[in-house]
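Reminder to self: tokens first, then the designed residues, so the page reads top to bottom the way the pipeline ran.
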């Protein structure tokens, strides 16, 4: 069965004090539809009413048995995560799900629940910037990174605030189904197609907002010219700043240098063409501004760890 045809089972674990937006993000992103081979179950420590945060409560149909069923378990953020750990039954169910092979993904302060399992010990993790110090203090064995949107440690993933939960979900979609499906979901959500996990959680207050807007316009401008030669100087000129300022601010905004970002954008476009067209590797290399198939293969393998041919075989949809 090809990657795009495989059914993925998603459990969204709602804990006491769960934040509404954090609960809704994975439930909406992965909701079952023709283009999304996922099944979602919303659960709690037990079926029934769960008191949420921000004046809302949730009536969940499933208990912890959903974690034994799921391939991916999302733990949305919840209020006062630094006061006490989730109930032992929840911690044990998360450990059992991970041991069975499920991926565990936390949104915002849901990272505290994952940390309580010990599964983040010795790993990088993040959470909402307001709680990064509390997470490090409560779980000193966790390598807390306060300057990223999300962290992918393979079978355990964490993200910062609610908006970065969307970034994490799109990242998981890219891993599961490919870039075309992820971009389709982003368009449906009216979200940015992809922000790197290494991007800072917030832009320093000293940076004027209009510059950020110009940089976003420059990124959009560059995305429409990936097949053409693109240089740092051209992008800086479009943003109306010096190349030095452009480089520094670009890293703050995206987590990549300008030319690293351009290369990844070209590889993303190549991925989508491999998934959705029958063009040869040589043709695609020319389309995305990498010149030759050899050059495309080199950068494709460096960034993704696979070849264009193997990628196409994995993510081409069946009839």
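Designed residues (319 positions):
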């Amino acid at each position: 069965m090809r990657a795009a045809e495989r059914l993925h089972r998603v459990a969204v674990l709602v804990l006491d004090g769960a934040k509404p937006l954090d609960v809704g993000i994975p439930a909406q992103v992965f909701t079952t539809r023709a283009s999304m081979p996922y099944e979602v179950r919303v659960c709690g420590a037990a079926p029934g009413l769960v008191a949420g945060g921000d004046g809302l409560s949730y009536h969940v149909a499933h208990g912890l048995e959903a974690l034994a069923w799921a391939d991916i378990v999302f733990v949305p953020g919840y209020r006062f995560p630094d006061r006490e750990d989730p109930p032992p039954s929840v911690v044990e169910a998360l450990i059992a799900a991970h041991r069975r092979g499920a991926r565990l993904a936390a949104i915002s302060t849901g990272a505290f629940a994952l940390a309580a399992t010990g599964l983040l010990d010795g790993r990088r993790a993040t959470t909402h910037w307001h709680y990064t110090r509390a997470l490090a203090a409560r779980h000193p064995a966790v390598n807390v990174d306060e300057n990223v949107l999300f962290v992918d440690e393979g079978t355990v993933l964490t993200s910062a605030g609610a908006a970065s939960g969307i970034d994490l979900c799109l990242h998981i979609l890219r891993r599961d189904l490919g870039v075309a499906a992820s971009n389709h979901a982003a368009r449906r959500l009216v979200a940015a197609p992809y922000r790197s996990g290494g991007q800072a959680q917030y832009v320093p207050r000293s940076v004027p907002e209009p510059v950020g807007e110009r940089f976003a316009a420059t990124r959009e401008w560059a995305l429409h010219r990936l097949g053409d030669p693109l240089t740092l100087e051209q992008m800086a000129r479009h943003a109306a700043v010096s190349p030095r300022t452009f480089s520094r601010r670009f890293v703050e905004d995206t987590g990549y240098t300008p030319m690293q970002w351009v290369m990844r954008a070209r590889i993303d476009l190549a991925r989508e063409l491999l998934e959705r067209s029958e063009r040869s590797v040589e043709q695609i290399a020319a389309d995305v501004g990498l010149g030759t198939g050899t050059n495309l293969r080199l950068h494709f393998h460096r960034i993704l760890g696979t070849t264009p041919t193997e990628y196409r075989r994995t993510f081409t949809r069946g009839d």
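Residues 197-211 have pLDDT under 50 and may be disordered.
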